[in-house]
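Quick one: structure tokens for this chain, please?
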Amino acid sequence: MKATLLILAAGMGSRYGGLKQMDGFGPNGETIIDYSIHDAIKAGFNKIVFIIRKDFHEAFEKDMRKKIGDKVKMEFVDQELYKIPNGSRYIAQRKKPWGTSHAVLMGAEVIKEAFAVINADDYYGPDSYKTLIKYFKTAKDKSEYAVVSYLLKNTLSDYGTVNRGVCSADKKGYLVGITEAVKIGKVKNKISYPTEDGEIILQPDTLVSMNMFGFFPSYFTETKKLFKTFLLEKGLELKSEFFIPYTLDKMISAKQAKVKVLKTTSSWFGVTYQKDKPHVVKKIKELIAKGVYPSKLW
């Protein structure tokens, strides 16, 4: 079967202090993206689509083609602020694009098959890609999607707050709702995040999305409609963002889609802050020592 891995790599890296998409963590300068692609190819993905920004497109594509060569087909697509439906507006002061669901929409022209979505700066582990390939092969309803879930306690940073999609599932394992929790932090034994209505406490074993999803092309059709409505309501706000959890929540509420909550045996780790880097380097060394990866990836 055909399956694409769509990698969201257009992030600004403001909290990290640079382009973490191109930062080296492996013994030969391998990026987290390199390990994601390696795992995806082994699992059965046969195309990679990168969503990036125009200002580093040329350097990024050159680097990836040099490393990966013809091991897998690759496409490079820019996510830019101005790429919105005709007639939509935004204020001149806005600088950032419209968030993760907008980024996914950028891939509509080059993706016609089942596809997974991941963040460029997150490590998801080999089993997570195998889990999605198995899901794609067995899914009968192409308006049913999937989210790979992790335990919240295993996804926090010791150096600052993080954003996570908090998942709620029914007894059949389908997503009831997904809430984008912004600025989740851990103080002593308490995990919480702020809202307009006050502090929300979260349990350590709360299932969260790390932005690893399984979609079919029908996702593009519904998301385009939601994006037009979103821009009418929030397009003139300076920092409004069109997140994947927002679109899924809308689809589920309108009974336009069902989302299967998949669990993986893989461990997650990622980089939000520069201080996270030594931890990631250590984790990769441990995986190489266990034989999960060769010392030289490509």
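The two ends are 25 Å apart (CA to CA).
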